[in-house]
Amino acid sequence: MRNRCWLSLILLLSLLAVPERSFAVDSYQRINDIEYATTDQQRLLLDLYLPHDVKNPPLLVWIHGGAWRAGSKANMPLIELVQNGFAVASVEYRLSPVAKFPAQMYDIKAAIRFLRGSAEKYGYNADKIGILGSSAGGHLVALTGVTNGNQQLEGDLGDFTDESSSVQAIVDYFGPTNFMTILPQSTPHGLSVRVPALQLLLGDQPENRPDLARLASPVFHVDEKDPPLLIIHGDQDPQVPINQSHELQGKYKQHGRDVTFKVIHGGAHGGPEFFDKERMQLVEAFLRKHLTP
Length: 293
Known about the structure:
Layout lengths: L1 H15 L4 E4 L3 E11 L4 E9 L6 E6 L15 H5 L3 E5 L11 H15 L1 H4 L2 E10 L1 H10 L23 E5 L8 H4 L2 H15 L7 H6 L13 E6 L8 H12 L4 E6 L12 H15 L2
Parallel strand pairs: 4-5, 4-6, 6-7, 7-8, 8-9
Antiparallel strand pairs: 1-2, 2-3, 3-5
């Protein structure tokens, strides 16, 4: 019995201290489980994808979805961009059952600071960074992009607090943008998903935490300094109403900022059509325009 207990403890400790692991694929190298910061709840990790035979590739950051309470950095749909010469960091962040908002923003901004501070070590170009994400990840990347320099959401995690957490291009796949309007806009199915998800993220319903809900809503932060934005949303999305993306597009236009809105007619909440050849070419052209000389 004692031996079994020791074996269980050793296994648990090995899982808690996962080292970096590197895998070589034909067209790229993947380095898993790079620690970018630590918190009281967990170590914060990212996976880095580096294209072969590309010197100083531009850097992208991928933020996964999952209603802020689930999902994994392992689900990274931008391999085609890696094969076309981009470095991609797929970032994990504290999920809402572990920590309430704004912990997720502290984590993502810490990851960007880490990536800037580690550019020479890993060999990518972090002068300009693009950030992409879907669903809850779309919300988080939009919020990251429109809050460059916002000290309320910066946090102090990690060893690179002197680095900038700013990003220079945003690709938002069907992310929520206004927590004060999303529930009235939602279908019954949407409400069944969003009500518990927002309550877990914010600690209460948005109407009961209006200041926090506004802090968490990209539309309330848009100004004349925000980076270029590409939005991709399906007009039949049953979970995040397309009006959420219209609101963010409208705020960008109001402030004279660069925004492109691609509607996928018949598109629901995700699916292969969001990452098909046409959409990937659109995303790659957008990123090359704004991140490369």
